[in-house]
Amino acid sequence: MTTLKNNNQFVHFSKKFGLITPNQVILINGTQQESIDLESISTVNLFKKRIFSVNLLLFAAGILFLAVAYFLYMINDAMLFWSTLAIGSIMTSYSLVHKFHSYRLVILEKNKAIHEVKATQFHRKCIKEFYASIHHKTVNAKRKNKVMAE
Asked: How many helices and strands, by DSSP H and E, does the chain display?
């Protein structure tokens, strides 16, 4: 996430997700761009979901490598046995220790329009910063409108 200063106003920019200006949020979904006014945003949520199937797949592949290593031990090929045993052990232990997640940023407008941005675990830091920036801007805009109304 990059922050640029333009005419004494800060603009938050993320190549993956979009652009946050002082008045609006511009979301980038592939080749499409969606523009949302900050005042029209009612809620912003970031959902984190665990992807358990990747852990199961890694565990099964690790067990498969360990089984292949056992049969290679019977053939007496030491180099191939130890390398296959190491790969199987690493894959099995990694599947038990590491947790894979996907992230979904949901922006709900006052006119009930829903905008979604999806991200994987590799863009975790960027999606969290993007969410925090949008949330901070919308909270400040709501406070500003509340003070002006009083």
From this structure: 3, 8
